[in-house]
Amino acid sequence: MNALAKLKTIAPAVNQIVRSYALKSDLKIKWVRPEKIPCYKPEKSGDLQALPQYAGTELMKDFRDSKELETANEHVRNLFTLEHNRRKEMVENFKEDMVRRVYRHELDYGSMEAKLGLMTARIRSLQEYMEKFPRQSVVKVQLKELIDKRKRYLRYLRRWDYRRFEYVLEKLDLVYKPYPTHFHWITRKDSLRKLTTIHCDQIKDKRLDEYRRQLESEQLDFLEKKLKTLEFVRQEQIECRVPVTVTPDEIKAVRKRYDELLQKRAALADSLKESEE
Questions:
Q1: How far is CA 48 from CA 43, 45, 65, 150, in A?
Q2: CA gap 40, 148 in Å, rounded
Q3: What confidence tens digit (pLDDT) does each residue in 198-247 have?
């Protein structure tokens, strides 16, 4: 009987257990999963400039200095322009332009800067190709490998010659974006924790600002009351012939502070009145 009585008294308490940890928060915080950007996109690779659009009337790289084309017929000349040839010829022109931005001399194609220029031209041409044909997996892999290789080169140059590293970034319109030191998955739980912390910090800052404004509004009355209290205490101590603890310098300092604040409030009120008019 005693065991049954204990069970009867425990049963209502068990039924009253409420799951409160799974309820939604009352905070107005909305989390949206960030959009995934592929690593070959310019936003991730660090390219600030796209592949330039040539007019098409430029001659191919190997025929620029041809003297025969200067006096040739217009139809013959058009056969050697970029407009009437493959896209590869336009990319070759762009490669040469990128190398000329950073090369050390006219025949320089093997220095670190020239290699970075060639890789950047190739990367931007492949990025433009991927925008048109996003399902080309082979080109996508090649582009990823090129971006990783350029990052390794930039990291090496940044470590051993920072001035040249900055020069290359400026000339090639690049932004160095290294890989993160610690990888972590973007999850809803961690993101909500950060958003909650930011939300609580905003509430704290808002309340502190409100309290500061309240104290500033009461500061003038407080100083006036403090001035009168100090003068009264000093006068009473003198009349009662007890040691005087309030000095004239203290009263003078409080009075000066009170006058400065009063003038400041008056100037602020005048400026607000002028702005309204």
A1: 8, 9, 32, 15
A2: 10
A3: 889 999 999 999 999 999 889 989 999 999 999 999 999 888 888 888 88
